[in-house]
Amino acid sequence: MELIQQFQHRINQAVSELDIGHKQPAELYEPIAYTMGQPGKRLRPLLSLLACHLFGGDIEKAIYPAISVEIFHNFTLVHDDIMDKAPLRRGQQTVYQKWNADIAILAGDTMFAMAYQYALKTDPALVPKVLTVFSKAAIEVCEGQQLDMNFETIKTVSIPEYLNMIRLKTAVLLGASLEIGAICAHALPEDIAHIYQFGILLGIAFQLKDDLLDVYGDQDQFGKLSGGDIATNKKTYLYLKALELADDVKYSRLTSLYSPNSILPVEDKIRQVKQLFDDLDVKEQVGLIMDDYYYQAMLALSNISIGSARLEPLQDFAQKLFNRTY
């Protein structure tokens, strides 16, 4: 864990060096400084540095593209919170709530451009490869967000459709972060493919854990409104699995609770949906599929042609993510 702490310190240092809080107009840059200064996991740049280290690279060669991914990720959160009407992010007011939606949109747009600025600071010989990976992931994340919004108005969503959506919306950026770190270390193409696949599988498990924590996690630790997905009728894996397991009575009750015409107070709705999830052992079902994706991720990691000792930091970090409670 000492290595991870060292990399986290370097990432935090690089984020602090963005030095945007004093720029003008303040209405544009203060929300960006507010977002980038929040105590998030900074998971994606850490994965980039871990991948670079895994393949024997110099992490200083990966720090700029790693930060570019972090800036891009935070841009997506600023815009997603507007679309989701989310009041909290990381335990603090979302940007559109603290300022307004117009400012949040413009701040997010600026962050998107800043992300490309930082990606361009990569070793010039690697810029085309890094930007190819970055751009592909950026487009796929937007595709995933659109599918997520589509699901709000589509009556029937299948579990495979949902898993594909979270692959796009969440997992591809984790995969890209690892891929970029490996590229910066000049890893072999087949190993880059394995590390990317590891990121995809881990990313799906990560999002399933997020779905679970949204319902069963501690709000103060998780940093978001408990039951927020239920309140906004999000068709998460928990909801879709509950429908699959429910008898006719429970199915009817669950779909009624998720109806846009429901007039039940939010607190009562969340409580009743959670009770249905408990009755159907949905929490256990999520655990089973998470276990499967985690196992597949570890298998992809073990296929990399490198000594097992060098794999340990990534293996340990993946386990920590898998077992997290917030």
Question: What would you say this structure looks like, in words?
Answer:
This protein has 326 residues and is mostly helical. The protein has a single domain (2-322), classed as Orthogonal Bundle (Farnesyl Diphosphate Synthase), CATH 1.10.600.10. The protein has helices at 2-16, 26-36, 43-54, 63-84, 95-98, 101-119, 127-153, 159-184, 189-216, 219-222, 228-231, 237-245, 248-257, 266-279, 282-302, 308-322; strands at 88-89, 92-93. The chain has a two-stranded antiparallel sheet. Helix 1 crosses helix 3 (43-54), helix 3 runs antiparallel to helix 16 (308-322) and helix 8 (159-184) packs across helix 9 (189-216). The longest helix is centred in the middle third of the chain and has 28 residues, at 189-216. The mean pLDDT is 94.
Give a concise summary.
With 326 residues, this protein is mainly alpha-helical.
The Cα radius of gyration reads 20 Å
Strand content: under 5%
Helix/strand/pairing category: mainly alpha
Low-confidence stretches: none
What is the β-strand count?
A: 2
Q: Number of helical segments?
A: 16
Give helix % range: over 70%
CATH superfamily: Farnesyl Diphosphate Synthase
Overall mean pLDDT stands at: 94
Question: What is the CATH architecture term?
Answer: Orthogonal Bundle
List the domain count as a whole number: 1
Please supply descriptive tags for the structure shown above.
326 residues, mainly alpha, Farnesyl Diphosphate Synthase, two-stranded antiparallel sheet, 16 helices, globular
